[in-house]
Amino acid sequence: MKNHQINRWRGLALAGTTLAMLFSVLFSALPSIAAPATPSPAPSPSYSNDALLIRGTITNEKLPVAGVKLHVTGNGFDGTATTDADGKWIIEVSKKGTYDVEIQLDSLPKGVGLRDPEKSVRQADLTIVNTAGILFPLGKDTRVVQSFGDQLVIRLWSGLNLGLLLAVAAIGISLIFGTTGLNNFAHGEMLTFGALMTWVFYANMNLPILLVAVLVLILGGAFGFSQDAFLWKPLRKKRVGLNQMMIVSIGFSIVVRYVLLIIFGGETKVVSGSFQSVQLGPIVTTMNSVVSMAVSLVTLAAVALFLTRTRIGKATRAVSDNSALAASTGIDVERIIRIVWIVAGTLTALAGLLYGLQFQANWLTGFQILLLLFASVTLGGLGTALGATVGAMIIGFVVELSVLVIPADLKYAASLIILVLVLLIRPQGVLGKKQRIG
Amino acid sequence: MDWGAIFTLAVKELISPITATYVLCAIGLSVHFGYTGLLNFGQAAFAAIGGYGLAIAILTLHWPLIPAALFGLACSAVFAVVLGIPTLRLRADYLAIVTIAAAEIFRYFMTTIGFAKVTGGSNGLSQFGQEFWKMNPFPDLDYGFGPFTYRNDQIFVMMLGWTLVAICAILVWLLMRSPWGRVLRGIREDEDAVRSLGKNVFVYKLQALIFGGLFASLGGMLFVLNLSNVQPQSWGTTFTFMIWTVLLLGGAATVLGPIVGTLVFFFLMSITQGILSGLVSIGALPFLSDPQVGQIRFILIGLSLMLLVIFRPQGIFGNKREMQFNV
Predict the structure, then answer these.
(1) ipTM for the complex?
(2) 3-state DSSP call for residue A414?
(3) Which CATH class for the A149-437 domain?
(4) Range A52-140 classified under CATH 2.60.40.10
(5) Domain ranges of chain A
(6) Residue B148 near chain A (CB below 8 Å)
(7) What order of strands is seen across the sheet that includes strand A121-125?
(8) Which of A226, A128, A362, A365 is nearest to B298 (CA)?
(9) Of residues B113, B302, B326, nearest to A255 (C-beta)
């Protein structure tokens, strides 16, 4: 028995060390990226505390760009802001609601364009918060007409990137569902937590990225562990029904989300301020994305090895399959569930870190991709970890490829429509077993 | 701190047409979840479809108000059928995921620039209420007393809202006493038993989904007519979760539950917010700013949702035996 225990832990420790080593190799590519400048525009004293403000800073290669015009419309409001010598712009609006902010491309200096030319209009959401920060990352002018083939390659690349990210986050949902039967609606907040912690350690405290990753992963694991220990374990003991627990998780997600809003504020945080661009054929991407994809791939492989080769991984799958039977063979189900929550918390925090480094983050980040995560898990087959990965890749590709045929602001809708269609045709998902749908 | 003002504000919030909107949506959800056991997390979409259907029929199709309202209800029924066919045969938690997804899909479609000519995009639609306000039978005067003085327009929409609530509540009460209502409860308790009696469970569930959705759509119409505009961001998932909270507070499988739940909830919310704002203004809570007090409201919503479901799933009025979460 003792021997088994030691073997078991050795297996886990081995997997852990391997993972850590791989991370250190992969992440060592990152420090070459200069520490990000953290623009923290102080509120101009001329505005009152409860004024509704939209603002931002426009920089190009870390130098402020003055004289850029931004056109703000919405809720009957129509106004223009211009950046000052520090590249800062600010505009006051009178009503709560959503506003469209359009950057006037012809007011940009010559040869400078948006890094993402599709996004010359961005939305400022002032329905709940009083200040919205809007960023227009500038870069080399990429406004060149691309052939369909090139566009396809670019979209496939983005789809792969998104799919891998979603997979890392979705495995947690899938493992939790498999072992406990809970559809965890508070999963997105674990991702937000990881991304915002990355902002704290990386952008604010300027710690080296490797240390940031270690801290974020530990905190993520601790967050997962404490959710289980203080919320879900007592509820399981109380024999609260699964649908009830699902509604509890919705309540919990609201609580966490708004606590994060109160602590961090509503504006988008610049997690990683500068990007080193990388050219791969027609694809122009950033070092952050390349590293992120590699990290995701390694993580997914490690999880697969963990689930199939280690004792704990096998026990996890046994509990997923039939927890009563697993318990009767001597598996400590509660311990497995605890480990699953820690693993899920760690993986999702990692997904948050990778997401933040590529796309920035705010208090709603995780919630906004929660439905994509659910779509991935349901598509692949609820409760199967491999299925979640497959589902996430499908969703990633659908989201990015759909932009070739439909407007970009409908790309998330496209993936959700795919989810509904799959449920219509094959409700158990791509890899799910038929009996799981009950 | 001005206790009188805080209390007055809370009472004003109680009788506002917005509260009536929430009550209507909660009545609809009580048909879905309380009586039939359907985990519908897309109630916001049903309300939004009512509001958008009305506004689009008036602005784009140039229909008069009443046919436009019927158009909104018809859209809502179609939505329920489209939503129900793939999901009502599946397990309850699938319905939850698909309804929440469908509500977001609808919101994306209303927000996209592609359909902005019809939907108004992210700015939404306005200027569709002229005919509605012309129907106001109250002469152009102030009504009420002291702080409870309202213009005739406000009185009109308030009266309309609470009359609708009364009619809908009576309708639900009558229907749930009917044989049809008994079948719905039977489905909630034991689907297979009902099926063995030769009832087509799927059709009953679909009817319940349509029927409950219509109440929410009525609520949505009231909401947009009261504000004279309809915007996509009003109908996010938070709206749905709020409806769930008020319904579970009152008691899901009761006629009075949705009404009392909503009233108690909004009253307590308003009082708490007033007290917190008061404490902030006298500097007793230095770590909070005024906008953050508004955000605390949502933390309270989340907390009450959690605590209710754990400790009192039957709500204020409900009967514990009537509250089956795992159908």
Answers:
(1) 0.89
(2) helix
(3) mainly alpha
(4) yes
(5) 52-140, 149-437
(6) no
(7) A77-82, A69-74, A98-103, A121-125
(8) A128
(9) B302
Domain B3-322 class? mainly alpha
Substitution target from A125, A423, A428, A434 for chain B, most B beta carbons within 10 A: A423
- CA angle (B113, B114, B119) in 5-degree steps: 70
For the stretch A233-277, pLDDT in tens is 999 999 888 888 999 999 999 999 999 999 998 888 988 877 788
Q: What is the pLDDT of residue B327?
A: 37
The pairing of beta strand A52-57 with beta strand A131-133: parallel
CA pair distance B276, B294, nearest whole angstrom = 9
| CA-to-CA separations, B271 to A338, B246, B291, in angstroms, rounded | 40, 16, 16
Contact B94 A49 (CB under 8 A): no
- Contact A128/B at CB under 8 A: yes
Please report which confidence band the pLDDT of residue A97 belongs to, taking 50, 70 and 90 as the band edges.
confident
Mutate to test the interface with B, among A78, A416, A417 (most CBs of B within 10 A): A416
For the segment A161-188, the average pLDDT, to the nearest whole number, is 93
**Average pLDDT of the residues in A177-182:** 91
Alpha-carbon distance A132 to A111, whole Å? Answer: 28
- At A378-412, the pLDDT tens digits run 888 776 778 899 999 999 999 999 988 888 888 88
Top residue of B82, B105, B227 to mutate, by most chain A CBs within 10 Å, is B105
E strand map for A303-431: none
Taking each helix axis from N to C end, the angle separating B179-189 and B201-227, rounded to the nearest 10 degrees, works out to 100
pLDDT at position B110 is 93
Residue numbers of A between 371 and 390 with CB closer than 8 Å to B: 371, 374-375, 378
Q: Which of A87-101, A122-136, A415-429, B259-273 has the highest mean pLDDT?
A: B259-273
Helix (H, G, I), strand (E, B) or coil at A71: strand
Contact B295 A258 (CB under 8 A): yes
Residue type, A99: Y
Contacts of B96 in chain A (CB under 8 A): 183, 243, 246
Burial tier of A162 (Cβ tally within 10 Å: 0-12, 13-18, 19+): buried
CA distance A12 to A29: 26
* Gap between the Cα atoms of A118 and B274, Å rounded: 44
- Is the Cβ pair B309, A248 closer than 8 Å? yes
Taking an 8 Å cut-off on Cβ atoms, the answer to whether B304 and A251 are in contact is yes
**Sign of torsion, CA B93 B97 B103 B106?**
negative
Q: For residue B144, give Cα distances in angstroms to B139, B147, B148, B151.
A: 14, 8, 6, 9
With a cut of 50, which residues of chain B have pLDDT below it? Answer: 326-327
Residue A434 pLDDT: 59
Cβ B105–A261 below 8 Å, yes or no?
Answer: no
Q: How many CA atoms lie within 13 A of B137 on its CB side?
A: 3
Taking phi over 0 as left and psi of -120 to 50 as alpha, with beta for the rest, B321 belongs to alpha
What pLDDT was estimated at residue A102?
85
CA atoms within 13 A on the CB side of A308: 9
Strands A69-74 and A98-103: antiparallel
CA-based nearest residue in chain A for residue B288: A262
Q: Would you mind telling me the total number of residues written for chain A in this entry?
A: 438
- Name the residue among A36, A135, A437, A348 with its Cα closest to residue B90: A437
What are the strands, taking DSSP E only, across A121-275? 121-125, 131-133, 138-140
Closest alpha carbon to A168 in A318, A304, A8? A304
The residue ranges of every structural domain in chain B are: 3-322
CA dihedral B152→B158→B162→B167, nearest 10 degrees, is 60
Residue A209 tokens read as 């990225």
Closest Cβ–Cβ partner in A235, A246, A427 for B90 = A427
The model's pTM is 0.80
